[in-house]
Amino acid sequence: MQTSLKKLQSSAKSLEDNIVSFLDDLVSLKSVNGANNEEDIAVRISEEAHKLNLQSQIEALDKNRPNVLISHGEGPFEFLFVAHMDTVAAGTEESWSSPPFKPTKRDGRIYGRGTADNKAGVACALYTISMMKDLLLIDNQNIKVTLAAVSDEESGATSNIGVRHLLDNNLIQAKGAIYTYASDVVCIGHRGLLRLEIVTTGKSVHTGGQAWNDGIEGTNAVTGLAAILLKLEATAIDAPPHAAFGSLRNVITPGTIFKGGEFESVVPGNAAAIVDIRLLPGQDPNTVLEQIKSLLNHEIKLRPGLKAELKVKNSLPAVTLDTNHPLVSIAVDVAQRATGRKWNAVGAGPANEGYMLINAGIPTLCGFGPRGDNAHAANEWVEINSLTNTVAMYAAIAENYLVDLQRSNNI
Fold this sequence. Notes:
Alpha-Beta Plaits; six-stranded mixed β-sheet; four-stranded antiparallel β-sheet
């Protein structure tokens, strides 16, 4: 017989001070991707797990950027919570109402970089496992509940040192999973990502010289690249519609980063730009890439002397679970009972590592967690009251899903 949601909510509420204190510590420890590693965060998570008498192990491909696995139980039926430890940069502190790495409480919220994305998820998942242990919700011989706190997600969700490393080394083999982002929906998938770098090369000459004046020498790499980016902006790539993604569509965003030129009085001989492309389920990144190459080659032919190189920085597919999948149905039901409102089962616009798990055969909610907002923006926040309710929901979803799996396997 499954534990009542009210009992789980009551038990989780008693843990609120501990969860908030732990989250405060995580936010205070900088783990900005590209500036800090995740080692200090990993140590702090391991310390909290030890205090709660949970199993903890460090798994790292890069010793300075470890992953932490926290678990309870030994059984073959494993439920997995995934959270990444790294964050994006805070930007200018002037854009924040309070220091980004000093967790600040006001209006029932905690403000700070990483609260919603994704350190509240770490705190909620860790205390979910602890609560399930203490309430004896787990049949240790058949069930295991694990938190994988991973590194390097914010580099583009294609890293080989985080989730990918754990999967490739059979360190996680779950029957179901939740990526613990703050959300107010049951996220059943995400769009794909194709991120490119285009580098153009021309010929530098003096802008005041006779050769440039007469059009004899010089090729402007900046205007050549700009022309390519404008063509990309006007390009539509066919994408099959998908009900789970609503109005979200295939989007090309050229020039999210742009660099070029050498000096004020020199015709630019080089330029580079990043192009961000979002894909829907059914779109093959390789097919889209070929379309981009064709457009690139056409523009190069129009500009004698201009050369261009195309590099793939990130490529990952769109994924989605069926809305009728048991994990989705259970999550929608639990969330509605816990909050008193309907949670829609939809796909997310931004990509994450959920595709790695789904493609490895692990049904995964690609985002489900506490209420929060402003991820990747100033004044990122998470709602304090939602933390304990999320712990209760996580416990109910994991228990119900695993019990159903056991029944279906006659255990």
